[in-house]
Every structure is written in structure tokens, then in C-alpha cells.
Design brief:
The structure holds 2 protein chains of 2 kinds.
Chain A: E1 2-13, E2 16-27, E3 31-35, H1 42-49, E4 57-62, E5 65-66, H2 72-78, E6 80-82, H3 95-101, H4 111-116, H5 119-138, H6 154-167, E7 172-176, H7 184-199, E8 204-208, H8 212-218, E9 221-226, E10 229-234, H9 236-241, H10 243-250
Parallel strand pairs in A: 3-8, 3-9, 6-7, 7-8
Antiparallel strand pairs in A: 1-2, 1-4, 4-5, 9-10
Chain B: H1 9-13, H2 19-38, H3 41-65, H4 74-90, H5 95-117, H6 122-142, H7 144-147, E1 153-154, E2 159-160, E3 163-164, H8 171-193, H9 196-206, H10 208-213, H11 218-244, E4 246-247, H12 254-267, H13 272-300, H14 310-325, H15 329-343
Antiparallel strand pairs in B: 1-4, 2-3
Helix pairs in contact in B: 2-8, 3-8, 3-11, 3-12, 3-13, 4-5, 4-6, 4-11, 5-11, 9-11, 12-13, 12-15, 13-15
Classes of the chains: A alpha/beta, B mainly alpha.
Chain lengths: 255, 365
């Protein structure tokens, strides 16, 4: 089943064609990676799916529904979670609160009930807490539960951000360079987590990544982009063997 | 150092971590409740003033400290609260009805204004709220039949079920009334912060982008915060009206807005307790200055009573000092001192270095 359907997607900022006519389908339960040199438009594609940018042209369908005209905050409610390339956590809150904020789309109480803290609020809080605790266990964040983000090392923050996305209980998760700035061991852990997300949680993973060993290890299919256009799509090996992709990464020979 | 052993999720959900913390708060409220029997009328009136300032401070704290939006116009919402309350009571509405309506009027007005205003941030929002303040001030003067215009308005004394709560004839009762309102609002505020709504405020403050990615409607959340903040401030304004008894638009000058910002900044942005610390400072310092001035006059004969702007100068120096040396405010300093005592003798000098970060409100974007 096709979960995400991107058709002829384009966004132009003035004369800059950041993304220009990219189409791809992501199947449910698949790990799909987007690779490409810097400035190729990978993160822009993510921002278009999150509706942070308004596409100039093209459609995005998720789960059979056209999301091209939706507001950014409605995307989360559909079951699309994401992380950011430059960590965007809530610095002055604890790890636990950050993860609980990920439960926002599942809230069942309004602000009046919240202010009175009716028994209903407590019940739903316990429920959120249980879900978050599962994420904490999955990502082994127990030691950091009550720590403020502002004091945490980079590697841990990266993991907390993945945790916050998982706490949303999404259908699809967009990981924007999950392994950037991580050590070899840490990115190996990310690889295991991505595998587990797919296998145990049944998640569809859409990933932008530069670390080719991670891409090769976890991806079912890879899309290579350069200058806002799709170059090649297929298994990791196929894409890396593609002469156009090689040229985009290494440059072409001058005769 | 005390370690809390948590056995259920409720440990984290509860307002207090254990009965010791809860007991301390109950003791504080008890001490506040018996204050009329301990101190004289003058100091009781000052304590009432402090309570009203804490209430207004909490209102602004919700906005500045917890949602990251600046406001230079909160005196306007105090004025709306005060005038609504007084005008309704003047046409015979009982206080029990007029008081919540005052909060509603200020809150609704705030939320309405917020819809366009929250698209701005930082210094731009501050200027917009300042402009709003000027508009409200002019409106008060123009709407003379209701507000008494330049002449002013009289806030009738409060009577609930035959019991008199007048500020002059039964100050004790008025003090308890203010204390009751403050305790109630604090409880509601604390509940808000441990709930999904409060978390969405913090989310909007710390990272708007990821708040949106998490499904939070940023505009709606900011408007709600604005409305709630204004409602709280409106309550404080209504009480302030009764405290002063007879007032005109000059009571709610721009200096009230600035003092409120001082309350939340010096008190400690992002902590409810900060509003109280700040309010105590802002009401105690002028008293302290006048006591010192009198002392100086009687011992050395130097009369500083004629020096204008001395209070403002001292306040400004305090504010600058805090922003440079203690961005976390009085409450932040208190937390650090407490940690130092708890860890004694293991506390290190640089233990809090990482925490010297400014919350986003103060940055320009």
C-alpha cells in the first residue's frame, strides 16, 4: 500500500528552484532514504511535507488524503512526525516534558478542564505518561528523564528528538539527518532503532541522511536528488552505481 | 540531599513531590492567613498591595515567562478589569458577579487583540501592546458616562452575604478576600502548567517550529495565553480599584506596565514563585527607600525627599544588576542557594554555569 505519494513537487523561492518536479511514492512499512549533495533540496522536501513551505506546484497525498493545502499543525494530527536537522527541542524543559509535548495530538481535555485539573485530566495524563515511558525504555533514556535539555550532550539531544517524534504515535516518521554529528557507535544505534521502528512499531520511515553506511544498512529504497531534481531511485546499491549520482557527488570529468 | 523515590506516575503529576513540600506551602498560607492578628493596619495594607501585585505579576508571568511574548500594555488590562468591576458595581451588580465579569472582559479583550498581535514577536509585539495601552487610556477618557472620564470613578465597597469587605472599614476582611483570590488563581495557574495546555505554552515559547510539527496550533495557543494572562491581570486590576477606592485613568499609567515587567523579570522568568518574589521586591523597595531616607534625614540632616526620581533610579539599577548577574531572577537565586545548602559542602562554583541562558522572550528575532 502506498502511504505517501509525492507528485511533481516543486517550490521556487524567487528564481531559486529549490525543488523542481520531484515525484516518489513511499510504501507503508518501508524505510525510504533521500540522499544528495548539500543544497540538493532534501530538507526542503521534508519542509514541504511538513507544510512549513507552500509548494509552488505539485501534490502531496498521505494515506489517500491530499495534504497539499493543509496547515502545518494539522500534519501532526494525521500521523506524520518529524525531527529536525538542527535540533529543535524545548531547551528549558526536562526530557520527560519534551516527550510529553509530543503527545499533544492525543490530548483529550480542553484548557478549562486542565485548569481545574479534573480527574479526567489526571487519567489522560497517566495514559500519556505510560506511552512516553515506553519510548523512554525503547531509546534507553531512563537516566536523563528529569534532566533539562539545556544541560544535555548533543548525542542525547538527538535521541530525545527522535523520542519526541515517536511519542506522537505516528504512522510515518521523517528523520532529518538522524546521524549527523554522532559518533560511529551512536549512529550504529540509530540504525538499530530505525530497524526496530519498522519491525516492532510498524512505522514507515522517511530519512534524509549523508552517512552512506547507515543508508545502506537500513534503507529499502533510496532516492538521490541534486539541484532540486530526482536523479535516481532504487535499492541503495543501484542508486550508488548510477553514473549520474556519481557525477553529482564527485563531479564529472573534464575532457 | 533529599532523594524522592517515585513509585507511581502520580508522583510526577502531583503538584508537590512529597508531604514535606506540601506542608511548607500550607504553613505559608496559614501564616499569611493569621497576618491580620500579628501586624498593624499599615503593614497589612502593604501586604494587601503585595498580594494584588503578585496577582497581576502572575498574569504577566504566564505571558512573558511561560509563553515567551512580551507586553508593555498590561496596565491597560488592569484598567479594563478595574473599570468593568467598578462600573458594574455602580449599577448595582454584586461583587461576586462583577468580579468574574471583570476577568472575562479583560480576558476576551486580550484574546481578541491577540489574534492579530500574536503574529508579531519580540520588540514588535512589545511596541504593539504599548500602542494598545495608549488606545485603552484614550478610550477610558472618551467613555465618560461609564468610566467617569478624567474625573475618575468610585469603586463601591464589597459586600458578600451581608459581610462587609471594605478596604477602609474592614481591612482584615479585604485582605483575606485578596488572599483567597490569589490562592485560587495560583492553584489554577499551577494546574495549567502541569497539563497539556501549559506544555503547549512552553512549546510555543521554546521552539515555534517544532511546536507546529507536534500539531500545536501556534496562533490559537498564543491567543489563549494572551487571554488567560489578561484575565488574571484584570482580576488584579479590579482588586486594585477597590484598594485605591477612587481612581481615574492615571492610576494605570505606563509605569504600572513597566513595574509589572520588573516584577516578572526580577522575580524570575518562568516560575510562578517569581511573580511573588518580584511583587514583594517591587512593593517593599519604595518602603525601604522611604525608611532609609527618613533615617538619613534624622541622623545626618540630609534631605533626599526633594530628589525626584530616586526610586526609579534605584529600581533601574536593581533591574540592570539582575539582567547582568542573575537572569533567572530572585527565585533562580533562591533555588541556587537552596541547592548549595543541600549539597554542602559539595557545591561547586561553576555548577550552574550552563544554566545561565536567557529565555527566548528577551531575544530579538
Amino acid at each position: 500500500m502506498t502511504l505517501l505519494q509525492v507528485e511533481d513537487l516543486a517550490v521556487h523561492f524567487g528564481g531559486v528552484k529549490a525543488v523542481d518536479g520531484v515525484s516518489f511514492n513511499v510504501e507503508a512499512g518501508e524505510v525510504f532514504s533521500i540522499i544528495g549533495p548539500n543544497g540538493a533540496g532534501k530538507s526542503t522536501i521534508f519542509n514541504l511535507i511538513s507544510r512549513f513551505y507552500k509548494p509552488t506546484r505539485g501534490t502531496i497525498r498521505f494515506d489517500g488524503q491530499d495534504i497539499t493545502a493543509m496547515q502545518a499543525h494539522q500534519i501532526g494530527q494525521l500521523g506524520i512526525a518529524r525531527t529536525f536537522q538542527n535540533i529543535e527541542l524545548f531547551d528549558h524543559s526536562t526530557v520527560l516534558d519534551n516527550l510529553l509535548m509530543g503527545r499533544h495530538t492525543h490530548r483529550s481535555t480542553n484548557w478549562v478542564q486542565d485548569m481545574m485539573y479534573l480527574p479526567k485530566v489526571r487519567r489522560s495524563e497517566r495514559g500519556h505518561r505510560r506511552q512516553v515511558e515506553e519510548v523512554i525504555e525503547f531509546l534507553e533514556l531512563e537516566a536523563y528523564r528529569d534532566k533539562l535539555i539545556a544541560g544535555l550532550p548533543y548525542g542525547v539531544r538527538k535521541v530525545v528528538e527522535i523520542g519526541r517524534a515517536l511519542a506522537m504515535g505516528p504512522k510515518m516518521i521523517l528523520l532529518d539527518e538522524p546521524a549527523s554529528g554522532l559518533s560511529v557507535e551512536e549512529s550504529q544505534e540509530v540504525a538499530f532503532w530505525v530497524e526496530d521502528m519498522r519491525r516492532d512499531m510498524g512505522l514507515t520511515v522517511l530519512m534524509v541522511e549523508h552517512d552512506m553506511s547507515l543508508v545502506n544498512q537500513v534503507s529499502d529504497r533510496v532516492l538521490a536528488v541534486a539541484n532540486g531534481e530526482a536523479l535516481a531511485m532504487g535499492t541503495p546499491a543501484e542508486v550508488q552505481a548510477n553514473p549520474q549520482v556519481k557525477a553529482a557527488y564527485l563531479g564529472t570529468e573534464v575532457d | 540531599m533529599k532523594v524522592i523515590f517515585k513509585t507511581s506516575y502520580d508522583n510526577d503529576i502531583d503538584l508537590h513531590e512529597d508531604w514535606w513540600a506540601r506542608g511548607k506551602l500550607i504553613a505559608l498560607v496559614a501564616v499569611m492567613a493569621v497576618l491580620p492578628f500579628v501586624v498593624g493596619e499599615y503593614y497589612l495594607a502593604e501586604a494587601t498591595n503585595t498580594l494584588i501585585w503578585s496577582l497581576a505579576g502572575m498574569g504577566l508571568m504566564l505571558l512573558v515567562g511561560h509563553t515567551g511574548q512580551a507586553s508593555l500594555g498590561h496596565a491597560a488590562f488592569m484598567a479594563i478589569g478595574a473599570y468593568t468591576d467598578a462600573a458594574l458595581m455602580n449599577i448595582g451588580v454584586p461583587w461576586m458577579v462583577a468580579f468574574p465579569l471583570a476577568a472575562l472582559a479583560a480576558g476576551l479583550f486580550g484574546a481578541l487583540v491577540a489574534i492579530p498581535a500574536v503574529r508579531m514577536s519580540g520588540i514588535y509585539l512589545a511596541i504593539a501592546t504599548l500602542a494598545l495601552f495608549v488606545i485603552v487610556e484614550e478610550m477610558i477618557i472618551i467613555m465618560e458616562p461609564i468610566t467617569g472620564g478624567v474625573g475618575g470613578i468610585f469603586a463601591p465597597s464589597i459586600t458578600i452575604a451581608g459581610v462587609d469587605f471594605d478596604r477602609y472599614t474592614s481591612l482584615n476582611n479585604f485582605y483575606w478576600l485578596c488572599l483567597g483570590v490569589v490562592v485560587l488563581v495560583t492553584w489554577l495557574y499551577a494546574n495549567l502548567l502541569r497539563s497539556p495546555t501549559g506544555r503547549s505554552f512552553l512549546a510555543v515559547r521554546d521552539s515555534e517550529v517544532s511546536a507546529r510539527a507536534l500539531g500545536i496550533n501556534v496562533t490559537r495557543t498564543r491567543s489563549l495565553a494572551f487571554g488567560l494572562s489578561c484575565a488574571m491581570t484584570g482580576l488584579a486590576g479590579a482588586l486594585m480599584g477597590h484598594y485605591i477606592s477612587f481612581f481615574n485613568y492615571e492610576l494605570f499609567s505606563v509605569f504600572i506596565s513597566i513595574n509589572l515587567l520588573l516584577v516578572v523579570t526580577i522575580g524570575g522568568l518562568g516560575f510562578i514563585q517569581g511573580a511573588f518574589f518580584g511583587a514583594i521586591l517591587i512593593t517593599a523597595v519604595p518602603q525601604l527607600i522611604s525608611i532609609l531616607r527618613d533615617g538619613l534625614n534624622s541622623t545626618t540632616g540630609i534631605d533626599l525627599g526633594s530628589v525626584p526620581g530616586l526610586d526609579t533610579l534605584i529600581f533601574s539599577c536593581i533591574l540592570i544588576g539582575f539582567i547582568i548577574y542573575e537572569p533567572a531572577g530572585l527565585y533562580g537565586r533562591w533555588l541556587k542557594m537552596r541547592a548549595w545548602v543541600q549539597l554542602f559542602p559539595l557545591a561547586r562554583r561553576d555548577m550552574f554555569r550552563r544554566q545561565k541562558t536567557y529565555i527566548k522572550t528577551e531575544r530579538m528575532r
